[in-house]
Amino acid sequence: MSTEPHIRMSAVRKTFTVRQRAGRIRRRRVEVCAVDGISLTMNRGELCGYIGPNGAGKSTTIKMLTGILVPTSGTIRVAGLDPSRSRLRLTRRIGVVFGQRTQLWWDLPLRDSFDLLRYVYRVPATRHRANLAAFSELLDLGPLLATPVRQLSLGQRMRAELAAALLHDPEILYLDEPTIGLDVVSKAAVREFLLQVNRERGMTILLTTHDLADIERLCSRVIVIDHGHIISDGTVEDIKTRFGDVRTLVVDLAEPCPPLDVPATEIVQVEGPRQWLRFQRDHTTAAAVIAQVADQAQIRDLAIEETHIEDVIRRIYTESPATDTSK
Amino acid sequence: MVEDRSGPIELAGIYRRLIGARIRADWQYRTSFTLLTAGQMLFTIPDFVVVAMIFDQVPRLAGWTLAEVAFLYGLSDLAFALADIFVSQVESLVPLIKQGSFDRLLTRPMSPLIQVSAEFFALRQLGRVVAPILALGLAVSWLNLQWNAQRVLLTVMALGAATVIFSALWIMTSAITFWAVDSSHATHSITYGGRFLTQYPLSILGEWLRRLVIYILPLAFVAYLPTVVILDKPDPLGLPRALGYASPAVAVILAFAARAIWATAIRHYRSTGS
After folding, report:
1. Residue A104 to residue B104: CA distance in whole angstroms
2. A139 to chain B nearest CA, in Å?
3. Is residue A230 located within the same domain as residue A283?
4. What is the CATH number of the domain that holds A254?
């Protein structure tokens, strides 16, 4: 096996020209930089989360990695190919799931979609049968095969999309918000499946998501992008230590009180006698906060909440507010 | 390892399957499908009635009898209907692009043009072939021609070429969609307008319009020029008869031009993402 990473982006930029109204008829051309100098590598078999606020450049990155969009500058190598030049060759080696769109034939039984994809990708019949059997089992698709796609629930459809994207044995799988809108059970099924194909088939997986549980359950690595820049790249733990210096103190008071007034903290929630106080480790200490609360009210119980990845990400997002330009 | 590109026969097989899927999907909505098909049939018949009514007033139109015009009309409109079934709906790209579904087609190992034309394959337009086939049938029975092999071959060739020419026009005008998202009203003047121009003898057109359809937008090759040769008519315009045989060549050139424009449009889409 080569040492060349499975996916490599070096100083990749993508700018769009947007026409804006300027006056009654005149239009102004404005350059928008969706991806601004991104460099990253992914090794074979990595499962990596790619997160960022709307309009940060996630989808644009995925589209460049599939070869749909041509980068304005920089170089990309996916499985040894230049995606924009070898788009057709690359299609056989990658699977793509766009969470909000379907690649299935809407009005036909699910089985027909799988069948058509077999011809479009020219998968040998035996291979196709084996894959379909395996995925049907893992994703519990058997009872759905005869159902028209339009009658599937969102969760059922997403499971079907996953199978459809993998029937041609891709080495790399891109998923753009695969769990969006799914219920808890379906999310779990999707995650379980992704872990399994990652482990058993050694598939390299890059997924964008807004669901941080996806990240915590699935990803050994998380890349955070904002305004077209990578602002963080590392393990979930790395991010927590880097951005997670925010703590929350939960206090149960003897009786309900108006929100407490403690310097260097922020009351995030009040629920009867229970209050949540958020503070930053480098501004104050838990001991100081507790002492000040005790001065103002009688404490019955208290707990310090560990940094939750969700809070971390929320903080990253709010510190660099992005304008919503996602398409 | 599978080859990267399919051979033409394999491609035809996949195309057939994709069209099959489209038809099965349409058939899910049987009533709508049947009504649309019937509607298309009824729509096109008045077209020919209008032509016939002109001959109620005059015995000849620019030197052409009703039977001859019926042949011209039949040839042109049958080709238009066939192009309509296979590619005209490519112009419905707009919603596909707007929803971002077009991206999906670019992640598959197949030409997006073939996928789009299969996706929008419109069997319901089959209703449109009825009127032109009737017109051709009438023309043949009125004209009393000798249908030797050469004449039959020429007619089939002309029909094929005309279908390709119309298809190429549809694809070229649809490609504009990639730049100007809602351009169908403007581009219809070329496609539907072109169809109208080919239903009448060229000689009724003014000098400049005639030049336009011979040299620039080669609509004269759709029906008029081949018909002159097939019916063995003296051409009142005195154009070289060889032009009547040239329509397949014109069709091939236009097909290549359409392909190039389409490829440019895809390139544009991929670099702008609009």
Report:
1. 10
2. 22
3. no
4. 3.30.70
Q: Does B18 touch chain A (CB under 8 A)?
A: yes
Q: Are residues A176 and A232 in the same domain?
A: yes
Q: Which two tokens stand for residue B89?
A: 């709906």
A120 closest CB neighbour out of B14, B29, B100: B14
Name the minimum distance, in Å, from the CA of A231 to any CA of chain B.
Answer: 25
Q: How many domains does chain A have?
A: 2
Residues of A in contact with B10 (CB under 8 A): 122
Query: In this complex, is the C-beta atom of A101 within 8 Å of any C-beta atom belonging to chain B?
Result: yes
* Separation in Å, CA of A103 to nearest CA in chain B: 7
Q: Does residue A2 sit within a domain?
A: no
Q: pLDDT in tens for each of the 327 residues of chain A?
A: 556 899 999 999 999 887 777 777 777 888 889 999 999 999 999 999 998 888 889 999 999 999 999 999 999 999 999 999 999 999 999 999 988 888 999 999 999 999 999 999 999 999 999 999 999 999 999 999 999 999 999 999 999 999 999 999 999 999 999 998 899 999 999 999 999 999 999 999 999 988 888 888 899 899 999 889 998 899 888 877 777 677 788 999 988 888 888 888 888 888 888 998 888 877 888 888 888 888 888 899 998 876 767 777 777 777 654 444 443
Do A20 and A156 lie in one domain? The reply is: yes
Tell me: do A124 and A230 sit in the same domain. yes
A92 close contact with B: CB closer than 8 A: yes
Residue A53 in any domain: the answer is yes
Residue A63 forms part of a structural domain = yes
| Assigned token pair, A41 | 């590598």
From A16, A60, A101, residue closest to B104, measured CB to CB? A101
Helix (H, G, I), strand (E, B), or coil: what is residue A263?
coil
**Is B121 in a helix, a strand, or coil?**
coil
- The closest alpha carbon to B222, from B261, B168, B145, belongs to B168
Q: Does B53 touch chain A (CB under 8 A)?
A: no
> Whole-model pTM?
0.82
CATH code assigned at A153: 3.40.50.300
B153 touches chain A (CB under 8 A): no
Gap between the Cα atoms of B49 and B61, Å rounded: 15
Q: Are A140 and A159 a contacting pair, CB within 8 Å?
A: yes
A67 vs B: CB within 8 A: yes
d(CA A319, CA B31): 56
| Chain A residues touching B274 at Cβ < 8 A | 16
Instruction: Choose among B6, B168, B7, B18: nearest CA to B105.
Output: B18
- Is the residue at A47 inside a domain? yes
Q: Which domain holds residue A104?
A: 7-241
A130 and A254 inside one domain? no
What are B155's strand-pairing partners? none
